Amino acid sequence: MTDQLVTAPVLVALVSIVLTLSLRRWPRLQRAASVAGGVGYAVAVALVAWGVVLAPNAPGAVAYQIGGWPAPFGITLVADALSAFMLVVAASVGLPAVVLSVLFIDVDNQRVFYHPLFHSLLLGIAGAFLTGDLFNLFVWFEVMLMASYVLVAFYSGAQHTAAAFRYLVLNVIGGVFLLLAVGGLYATTGTLNMADMAQRLADPGAYGIDPAPVFGLSALLFAAFALKAGLVPFQFWVPGAYRAAPLPVSAMLAGASKKVGIYAIIRLYFTVFSGTSASASVPWIADGSPLSVLAPGLLIMGVASVLVGALGAVSRDTIEGMLAYSSIGQVGFIAVPVAIAAGAGSEELRHLGIVAALVYALHHALAKGLLFFSAAAVRSATGTNRMAELSGLASRSPALAGAFFVGSLSLVGVPPLTGFFGKFLVFATAADGYAADPAVGSGAVLLVLLLGALLTILYTTRAWVGSFWGPKTPSVEAATVDRGQVAVLVAVAAAIILLGIGFDPVYRFASAAADAAVDTNGYVDVVDPAGGDGS
Question: How far, CA to CA in Å, does 127 sit from each of 6, 152, 207, 225?
């Protein structure tokens, strides 16, 4: 019965799509069904996390073979601690986002397609986290992206259409890279099932596999995932798309969709490709695997993302613009510990790096989601998000100001909020990496992270002082704050505070997820491709 739990998030999202489409002639029922679908999705994710990982006798990982076809021939869904943790990240922003959508977006604009597309976004995210084979990873990516293309162009203005077109073109290119890499890996290894591929790459001679092409194809995969995560130099689509989309959707893109690219990098490079050895057939690599080859490139991209995102956020004059550029910088804080873990010489540092990335991903989903939701409430109340036109919101709505303040403090990393632990673990990873290899580059990484943290303080303080402090502007004087929207913000802010105060279960969950990421044998045993013989 536990293995059937794996399908729950996907099935709930599918049912939500059908219901919201069927009820398009009854807008109130459609909105109610959409919120119910968001609640059902969160419950399904909680059941997966509890039943597979957190319960006292939980198995730790389960696989479900769709249609009863065994791996590697059938379609496999796999839930382990890593995929369950990432599902929790998605649900933590998905539920408040769908509730805020109902309250924030004009009722007429919600009719017909908004809610089915929103749940299609959740469906693609859930499928990507749970799939056990590379081709279906591509398919779920495309499900997620097709929904997001339309949502980015939702308001249909010239600026929104241009942003959606750039987003579409860049991600179609990324999809081509991904599909070419998937086809090449199938031609090289003879399988698409990730567990079977890991098993074959660990002993290429037994399966007649030349490992040389795997290095090049894995680099192509990495480029596609980095583009979808919005890492520098593939960040160009991020600011325009986030500003064009409805703000609840922007929260989803930043808090959940971006994390799919990071998850794919962790899953494939740490679980699937880590056993691939650079033999004599790969003369341009002295020793190592695609995992170690990945490390320098990802580290440079992560460091560059921290700088580009933070500097861009400081110079923006709207709350949405600041948050859009901030998302580029914050994903850099996730990529850096993953890169350090990829190049780590010890299991302890590798484990710490993955834990840091996962905790920071959860923190970022909550904090950035809260800030985007706050921007939605501000725009709904005042009609603007330009900081020059906002001042005095703290006296107009203390609850709204308090929620934004909590999100800002968490993004900065003030204890005891979740952001403190995320920042602490990232800096601990960088410090341990420097201790293990006290080179100039390792020291530079620490300095860039510190600069990124300082710039985060600068742009969040500027947004707080400019929008919430001081005398009321005419826009704020005439503001009408929606209590329902503020209630959503307060709930997310409370979650950030409570998870920070009770951080130990979060850390243990992230630690189990990090263990699952590097436990290739455990992953293979759970999926059990072709009865364990790999044939």
Answer: 10, 21, 29, 16
